[in-house]
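Morning!

This is the sequence you dropped in the shared folder:
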Amino acid sequence: MKTKVLSFLILGLCLSKLLVAAVEPGQNILLNADFEAEQMDFPPLWSQSDETVVFFEASSGPESTGAVIFRSPADTPNSASVRQLDHELVAGETYTISAWVKTKDFKCSHYGVIVHNTGWTEAKGLTKWPADSDGWQRLEQTFSLPRSSNDKYGFAIFASNFTGEVQVARVRLEAVSAKALAGSLTAPSLLQQARFRLVPWEPLLNHIPRSKPQLTLHNFGMARQETCDEHDCIISVNGREIQRKPLQNRYNVVDLAGLAPADYQMQVSVRQRAQNKEIFAQTYNISIVDPPVINDAKHRRLNNFVVQLLDENLGEDSQNLVFDNPREGWVYLGLSGVENGEALQVELSGLGTVIRGDSERPETFRYLPRGRQSLKVSGANANARLQVRAIAEVFNYPACANSQVPQNGEYDWDFLSKYVLPAVTTLNGGNIPDNEVAGYKAGGGRWLANLGTTNPKDANDLLQRLHKAAGIRQEKYDGLTCDEQFFGRSNLIYYTQAMWDYQVPEEKLVYTWIVGKPSVQGVHHDFMSASINACRGRGRLLFEAYNHSRANEEDARSYLENRVLDTMLKFNRYFPNAVANTGMLFGNFNQIPIISLDVNPEVDYKYYLDMQLNLAANNPAFEGLGTIGYWGSYYDDEELYRWSMLLLRHYAVEGRRDMLSEKYGYKYNPGHLRNCDFNQGLDGWQAEPAAEPALSQASFLGYGKDSQRRWGAPSRCGDNFCLFKRQATGFSRISQVASGLVVGQTYTLQFVTADYQDMLQKRFNPRRHPIGVEFSEGAELLPEQSYVFVDRRDDQRAPRLAGKARVNLHHWRFVARNSELSISFHDKEAEPGEELVLNYIMLKPYFGK
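The structure's back. Tokens below.
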């Protein structure tokens, strides 16, 4: 949609106290107070004093919220702070600070969670907590605010010369007294984000029904009605003024009665009446439509993704059938019980033959308009059955891109045709062979290119990228995804402006990858409206729900509720029915050492992925979700790639509510081995050292995150390991009995090794490490499915690995012939003096082809 935007940042700065809403009772003045920091090292809008003392964990706080951590050894006192500056508060008025705090061996004489004046000469807040809190405690303090020379204040979490550990989460600063509520403002540096704007609210701009021709614009940034009364909101359509009313402090309703169904340009202007000064102007493309009447008497919702529209026994005679598609979107049509293949075909109104009985898969996905659709079925047999379902868009990134671990085989078009296309409507990125594009498109599939849009200079920079993008210019693409935006970054306003300014070609799609949760009034509402209204209301917000594994299933459920469910709830609060234009894109990447969310070796990540889709398929917050799928499939091992697509088929095509893992007997914690990362020393392992120093638990800071690429894991995850020091007198061994195996089931044993001196000396020395594994009787090894991957990537190909040790990834596959068997690791083949490390020992059932 083509728009014209009047930027009035200077005016906003001058009139900040006039235009920014006063805080409401219970409103948190602090920004990003739950420490959201998705895909970032530290929560945005907070400053960190010393990264060697101040740490952050994304989900270790109450209800899996973020927590900032101060940690200092007992013999080395340190000082630390985390701050947010320049809030405008009212001296002498009443405020409340609260926070959740957890301490361990904490010793300090000067610390707190406080608000301070300019110069930090006075402060108020939480300045007392126990040395050992025995878990999370919520603390609260109400106080009268001291004076500040410029009416500006900072918020700080700090500790001076402390030892031990303190974690702080869910901080709040609230105005209590009437004058505090009326006069408190967030930091002026964020006024550009909080400036006045009218946001198109509901319905979507190109979906305004003639039966109720009204459009609501939401006022953000001018909350006092007495101030609004000094301004007029003027609406013109195709250059003709149709409405002039005083600006309302919340919803401004535009009456479009009398307009015939068609496309129009609507100009919105807000003018300060006394001075006749325009403070806001924007133009939108709108559409008045006559939506078809939907007969949903036979519709049956199967889960949040799928509505059954038709389920018919066909018989042997030709039939004409109809169904009503409840909304513009994807429909699945599938035949079963087909016998006389070649004769059978299904024709769909306007599209011709879409299914043939002799097809390898007698089914198809089609993107259809809302309303009545006609089908003609001919050549069916008595047992043939036709099912039609309205489904969510099913998405996978990328197409035909191989794993960097070659032992996984090729993820080529044959692989996609067999494992991916039965579950997926839309491919993103990657490459489809030129000779396959036409057939894929003719079969109903979509392909979106990917465009880098992070860190633009301004809105015009983004517009130039969009105009030049392959996804827009090349016919083979159906549009593009913009990769990626962050709720926590102030340059989000540039993307928003570009989306309002850019007129998307009618046949193209523009989807938006987004990280984090909406939290800032006005700017985040505007961003969501612009992104969703793009391409005539077909825009998608693709939320990056990349969830690393947790220690146990209960913890994982709590984490997912905060990480996934709470995000969807916030989306729906920030924009009406946002769920319909939201994509929940889970991360399925598990490829150590490339990048992996599968950070806990005692978890079966197949089950964890199942939990994620099951939550979205069943929780009411996701009903009518626009898009479901995965990012990162080329970072899967072949097993998880195939399993991921089967999960999408199970939930998003078949409409199932039960967990697929139940069919295969998978569990969150298989429990075959324990202490697989040696976090409890060598507990659970039978150690047979050749000499006293030959076997021990050791640790190296950052090894799990850097060398193994356990992505997004809690701090120190993967840093502990068993250290083998090869003795001249002989080799050493550790072993454990694997229990609970199912006789006849195929299993994968995976583990990771490295050279300890490579870590200490920061040297590039890729080679096969002489750590061996042995199985007792009861394991039928499958050598053709087993391998060792040596990470030989140099610093140029993998700059993140500069100065980091390179690992080996060991994969052993076997069939269990006993319910228990012993697995042992040894340094028999190592040279005397070699120091080798072992961890991430995973034993799980294998999902076969």
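Headline: The radius of gyration is 30 Å.

More detail when I'm at my desk.
O.
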